[in-house]
Amino acid sequence: MARPDDLAERRGLETDVYQPAEDSALLASATVEAVEAGDAVLEVGTGSGWVAAQVRETREARVIAADVNPHACRQARDRGLEVVRADLVSPFRTDSFDVVTFNPPYLPTDPDNEWDDWMEAALSGGETGRRLVEPFLEEVGRVLASSGCVLLLVSSLTDREVVESIAADAGFETEAVREESYPFETLWVLRLFPVGPDTS
Ligand SMILES: C[S@@+](CC[C@H](N)C(=O)[O-])C[C@H]1O[C@@H](n2cnc3c(N)ncnc32)[C@H](O)[C@@H]1O
């Protein structure tokens, strides 16, 4: 993802749809590894559909690509993906996916500096960078099968420890399955498993 300082420069230069970058590649590699033949897979915030397409091309899985941005939905559909325009996981049925994967908008953004277009929806994580991470973690457990898992891209810009603590409060154990460092941030892919009820 772009450095926060570059965001103003990028306004007006981008298309309406986030194009695959290092974060997309990291998430795709972890997702392909997690998916087994026959799995039902949901990519939340699919953007161009590139991550979902990697999964569909390498695994015999049913892949649904979802995004709130209608331009992104069109690009993903043009790749031949099954696409649903959706706010996070809201339209999907309970217990319906084995794997849910998400590269959220995560750049911390000053509220006075928001610019209100589809690229902002793709990049800006609000003041904390966790604007969408928090509701996603609260809601994703509902659509996940009990033996399923979530893959979530997290940046050092959004504080991995805080994300892990929100995930724990939402009933998940986490492990980092990918890590890559750049001059301005470290990226991880966290794999989240629902924790069963404590029977001890
Ligand atoms: C960082 S981009 C990731 C795009 C793509 N998955 C990738 O890795 O290349 C974040 C995506 O989340 C989408 N998004 C933002 N808010 C959303 C919401 N409330 N529900 C679903 N998708 C959302 C954006 O439109 C954007 O496509």
UniProtKB/TrEMBL annotation:
Q: Where is the Methyltransferase domain?
A: 41-103
A cellular component term from Gene Ontology for this protein is: eRF1 methyltransferase complex
- Gene coding for it: prmC
Enzyme class, first EC level, given as a word: transferase
The source's domain of life comes to: Archaea
Q: What is the E.C. number? A: 2.1.1.297
Alphabetized GO MF terms? peptide chain release factor N(5)-glutamine methyltransferase activity
Query: Which ranges of the sequence are coiled-coil?
Result: none
One biological process GO term for this chain?
A: methylation
Q: Which UniProt keywords apply?
A: Methyltransferase, S-adenosyl-L-methionine, Transferase
Name under which the protein is recorded: Release factor glutamine methyltransferase
Name the InterPro entries on file: Euk-Arch_PrmC-MTase (IPR052190), Methyltransf_25 (IPR041698), PrmC-related (IPR004557), SAM-dependent_MTases_sf (IPR029063)
- Record's Pfam families? Methyltransf_25
Q: Which organism is it from?
A: Halalkaliarchaeum desulfuricum
